[in-house]
Amino acid sequence: MQRTRREWIIDTLILAVTFLVAELYFVFNAPADVINNVKIALDDLIPRLPIFVVPYLLFLPWLWLIVIYAWLKKKSFYQLALSLTIVNLIAYVVYLSFQTIVPRDLVVENDIFSNILRLIYENDLPYAALPSLHCGLSAVAATYFVLRKSKWAPAFVSMAALVVISTLFTKQHFVLDAITGVILGTGVTVLMFKLLPSNE
Fold it and tell me: CA-to-CA distance for 160 and 140, rounded, in angstroms?
């Protein structure tokens, strides 16, 4: 289905808003008066494996390529953009009312993956952890392909699962951060596809 000029303008504005709302994360990733720690016993059993910085860092380009694809092809773009925006906004409300922290151990190894992980620790504050947006937005992307019954759905679900696991093995998030992120992302996306008619 061909877009009119007006539709291109509207869709481009929606794309811009989706991106700008996502960028607000850096505003909310800051300490609060009360900072909570949601670590559970299971977290102590998960080792830090620096090689998982690879899928952890691939998350953003992977996600935004999906968004650009949906925008260009008009493949359930509204459902995807709204899902991402709502997940982000809900997470920000949680960060304001229940700020969490993930304390990090010092990275002493000097291999390439450890060096990259050290840079992540130095440039990404340890707050705004629950729900994990890496996990929540990955769940949105995976659910988007599943609900569209795409033949590529298994690949995108696998990639989303790898991103979720990476947040744990890089010690960027606790188990409860990941679980709440996945539930939030999946639930919001299912709801958006139910509420909005398909544009394909």
Answer: 9
- Into how many domains does the chain fold? 1
* Angstrom distance (rounded) from CA 141 to CA 17: 18
What's the rounded Cα separation, in Å, for the pair 99 and 188? 21
Residue 164 one-letter amino acid:
V
pLDDT digits 0-9 by tens, 172-196: 999 999 999 999 999 999 999 999 9
The DSSP secondary structure of 5-65, one letter per residue, reads HHHHHHHHHHHHHHHHHHHTHHHHSS--SS-B----HHHHHSPP-GGGHHHHHHHHHHHHH
**Domain range enclosing 112:** 5-195
Q: Is residue 200 part of a domain?
A: no
15, 85, 88, 105, 166 from 21: Cα distances, Å: 10, 6, 7, 31, 24
pTM above 0.90, yes or no: yes
Tokens found for residue 115: 């060096």
